[in-house]
Amino acid sequence: MSEVQVKDAGGGGKNKQKKQQLRVDFTPMVDMNMLLITFFMLCSSLLKPETLPINMPSDVEVKKEEQNKVRESGAVTLLLGGEDKLYYYTGMVDAAAYTNPDFLIEASWNPENPESIRQFLLNKNKGTYEEIQALKIRLQNNEFPDSVFRRLSNEVQDKAMKELKIAPTVMIKPSDLSSYKNLVDALDEMLVCNIGAYAVIDLADGDRRLLFNKTENSNYLTEEEIAQAGGAKK
Q1: What CA–CA distance (Å, rounded) separates 136 from 150?
Q2: Are 95 and 124 in contact (CB under 8 A)?
Q3: Taking the alpha carbons of 70, 77, 203, 228 in that order, is the dihedral positive or negative?
């Protein structure tokens, strides 16, 4: 509401005009602003941060009995080395693996390379990958919402792991010489290849020995392992 205040200049002169002061009352605007804020809060959709789901290792040491539950035929371990090198092995590590440099296989990051990690994972996840890709095409054609797609893809992956037992379980182990980019690239490959079960795990002592046997680079070893071997870092 506005209010006009008139002041008399006094003096009784006929030529003198009265001064007017206009004061606007903004008190009702406070209520209006609160109503507008409440309206936009209720009608607008808040942005949700999109994060990449990563299974991080637990602080509690996993028992060997639980580790052995992972099927040997479906277990794939990725070792991220230095200089953007990528290595992998399938199954579990036995004593003979530490004396066999060929046990650890070097893979390429380039998806066009026949020996790339993507081609290997696609072959390993054959069948499941095609089913989920078909669901993605239906999602793009707006046949169902995103929530239905996630449910259906989870059902496909669960069936491949529990019933058909053909889906791989990938363990990603970055080394101290690898970069953060290598880890992100490895996680991207999991999404591209529709890998349902994967986790980021700390590098074990046995994995360090495998990297050392493959590359002859003692930087992968711990100081204690180097002291036990009686060698110096290369």
Answers
A1: 10
A2: no
A3: positive
* Bridge pairing between strands 75-80 and 169-174: parallel
The string of pLDDT tens digits covering residues 37-61 is 888 777 765 555 555 555 555 544 4
Residue 154 neighbours by CB under 8 Å, 6+ apart: 196
Residue 62, SS3 per DSSP: coil
C-alpha 186/C-alpha 189 separation (Å) is 5
Query: Are the C-beta atoms of residues 9 and 18 closer than 8 Å to each other?
Result: yes
**CA dist., res. 19 & res. 55, Å (int):** 76
Nearest to 56, CA basis, from 229, 198, 232: 198
Read off the tokens for 200.
């980021």
pTM of the predicted structure, to 2 decimals: 0.68
The token pair at 113 is 């390379």
